[in-house]
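Retro notes - structure team

What went well: the batch runner handled both jobs without manual restarts.
What didn't: labels got mixed up in the shared folder, which is why I'm recording both outputs here explicitly, each with its sequence directly above its tokens.

Job 1
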Amino acid sequence: MTSPHAFWVAGRRATGADSFDVTNPYDGRLVGTVSVPTDDQVEEAVAAAHAVRDEFAATPAHVRAAALDHVVRRLGERTEEIARLISAENGKPIKWARGEVGRAVSVFRFAAEEARRFNGGEAQRLDTDLGGTGRLGLTRRFPRGAVLGIAPFNFPLNLSAHKVAPAIAVGAPIILKPAPATPISSLILGELLAETDLPAGSWSVLTVPNDKMPALVQDERLPVISFTGSGPVGYAIMESVPRKHCTLELGGNGAAVVLSDYASDEDLDWAATRIATFSNYQGGQSCISVQRVIADASVYDRLVPKIVAAVEALATGDPADPTTDVGPLVSEDAAKRVESWVDEAVQGGAELLTGGKRDGATYAPTVLAGLPDDVTLSCEEVFGPVMSLQKVDGEAEAFAAVNSSKYGLQAGVFTHDLQTAFRAHRALEVGGVIIGDVPSYRADQMPYGGAKQSGVGREGVRYAMDDYTYERVLVLTGLAL
């Protein structure tokens, strides 16, 4: 019998008295057993992070950058191993898991680059008024303190990277709490960090059960919380600690808009293929997957059969098979929830164009039309391989339909018109507008986050670094400017 996977306390490998199993959602096989930290071990990690905060903030940029560069190299060397692990614990098709490792490599590379140029200082003349004669302001950024990073199951490595890498880049200690369903890839990340020369206490990876999290959230020694997950949990965290700095990356209800000028067969083939792929990749378990397709009436009837055909062409099955496009959801309970929402919509009058069937944790890629406004699928994030189609009359009606959601993460607009692109950028109440593609596009260096109930703050390496730090001004007096 193999030993449980250890967690990491202040950079040191450790095990606790309890453990839990991680299973493959596709076939139920055991992926690994993970040790659970005791309350004393959690306290040790928090105390160490708090104690090292000044030392870590003062660490030379080249030391932090070298550690990040090391993780870049080691992730690259272990890509296939880690991708297969992500696929096993998450159910993500192996081709998407490989892509996730590649993205994590980029995140750490961007962080290494930013660590070398961040905090260079901005000088400001203050002698613009008489009282400022001979004075110069110098502004720099300093860490707010230790960070509690809470990662989700859907991108267990890359979204952990988005919390850990910016913290290291600015010199902020971080305690990473991975999702219970998918902790092992984060523990592998701990292995790589342990190979660096970062100060003891500057990082920990704690496989803490969810019911133990309130104490960590409330701990005043962790003044920054970076959370990615569901809206109810995220807002409950923020409301419970109003004096902390919280970054919340929450849900979405991603809309892809196809406007009247996107009308050639080539245009519609591209739109249909992209929509089909990114409604269903990761089993639809992405906050920016396509959940709503809003198409102008002039192209709707030609677009719909293309989308249905593209969805039906997707290969569903074993995530370890490189030809598989759509694997299982993270659990059978998650698939049952999606099934219940689709059944509710069909009973309410929606037309099922394809899909609508569940096999264990796998739910068939599903397309609905004529979705009633009062069903759950119309207003909540499905987080599964389901999309709805809506016909609209013109740009204004399309943009209004996008904005009708309580969420506002990203939107995709298929148009060739530059003026329309700028109108979309102004009108759509979302954090990102993607022109000529689906809302599911994300570059890991760009600002990523939402409006309305999609969260607070931004990820993307440089933007997370800003969130983890604050400006402090130094005023110099008596200078000959």
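Job 2
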Amino acid sequence: MVRRGTMALTTAVALAITGCAAQQQRPGTHSAGADQGVTATSVRIGGVLTKTSASGYSTKDAEIGARARFERANAEGGVHGRTIEFLGAEDDGQDAAKGDAAAKKLVQKEQVFALVPVHAPNFGGAAFLEREGVPWFGWATGPQWCGTKTGFGYNGCLAPKQGAGSQTWWGRQMADLLGGSEGKSVYVQTSDSSGSKYGGTTISQSFTAAGFELVGVNSGLPAAAPPPDWLPYVDKIMTSDGGEPPDVVVSVIAGTKFNVGLYAALKRAGYKGVLTDATSYDAAILGDPASAQALEGVVAAPMFEPFESSAPEIARLKRDVERVVPGAALTQHLAIGYWSADIFLDLLATTGKDLTRERFLATANGSYAYENRGFGKIQFPKDHDEPNGCGALVKLEDGAFQVARNMKCFDNVPLT
């Protein structure tokens, strides 16, 4: 682990899941204003997740990951003598309006200092948090994370503006895995959601920057639910490379049901190339034979070091989770919650004992850098506008996940 800046991390954190209303303002309690949620002995935190949704997509495990990291920090003695009072996470139901309401509840009623973790694809509370100067940490999956002063994606900003840095790691890791990109074609399938379509743009460029030939991008898939018939999408893919199938198909779709449907249909059509996406690294699918069969051979691209890695940071994550929820499945969402909390704690320590939101944000947006093999590296304010450029590859082989490529960071290129 490499740290730059003033790192006096005796991090800590106490678990106190409560749904109580904001306390009466009196000496020693959580106060309103710049130091809201802070006392001499604690910092109050809550999160917003998509725990439930119409499509079945859920990020609820991020709460386990954050809680595990907070509890270890608490056991180590606290951050400058303060423990973390973690209220757990609100559910936005994958609805932007509910996300906005959840953020307002946490800030105005529960009097939190910051929101950790925020892991909701359609999070609608960004404008409110920016206006109120409330820090929030999580997985930056949409444009609401970019160009802010208060939102800190552990992976930076995945929706950079034209001319800003855009990631190349996925394409370059895949090129390395496949023995080079020369003469290889790639097709990108997204849904019609704004985040998925934008991801299609940046991910397409990642592969072309790595030397692949882009032979198609289809954003016509409805995001609300998997289609009853995959054949129209499969036909386009199977003839995209001059009438032939492409070498690589990239799915930029949130939800295992979508990918299972698409991949099963492609395999039925005889597709023999490489399938890759950002969401299929999920232990839960192994319990469903049909899903496991559809995802067999798929290369997932997590933006964190895989659980199967021998890295000491991953061994520590596993110990932390086991203490909090013995036997918990190690999912991508759990890792996202864990590493979001880890970065928040590091920044809390770097800010120092005199803690207010103003000082915290000034530290974060000054010249903050933190590197950890678990998620790569982060730099703010730079990464408010571009991704951190780091990721790994995992392949499902014979019903088990295997590390295909360990976490590695690559230089970004300007988005065109």
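One thing worth noting from job 2: The first helix runs from residue 61 to 75.
We'll revisit the folder naming next retro.
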